[in-house]
Design a protein that fits this description.
The protein is built from two helices and three strands; from the N terminus they run αβββα. It is an alpha+beta fold.
Length: 76
């Protein structure tokens, strides 16, 4: 299987995003990679937590549940 970033590049290309990336360090071990110039308001982001196990992150600095609720525009 390809690494996650390679898979996300494919998703971004399918969504009409350019290959321009913006990487933002959210916290000491957390990086958000954002693909720019996507069509039709599409947003493609990848949040990477260095050294984390494969678990559902909750709390700070990454709350996956809140991210999903915001994606569906139903966040409290």
């Amino acid at each position: 299987r390809p690494p996650v970033e390679e898979s996300m590049k494919s998703v971004a290309a399918t969504a009409g995003c350019s290959d321009r990336l913006r990487r933002v360090r959210v916290a000491a071990k957390v990086t958000r990679t954002e693909w720019r110039g996507c069509t039709d308001g599409v947003k493609v982001d990848l949040v990477t937590i260095t050294g984390a196990d494969h678990v559902w992150p909750t709390g700070r600095p990454v709350d996956a549940t809140l991210d999903v609720l915001q994606f569906f525009d139903i966040a409290p």
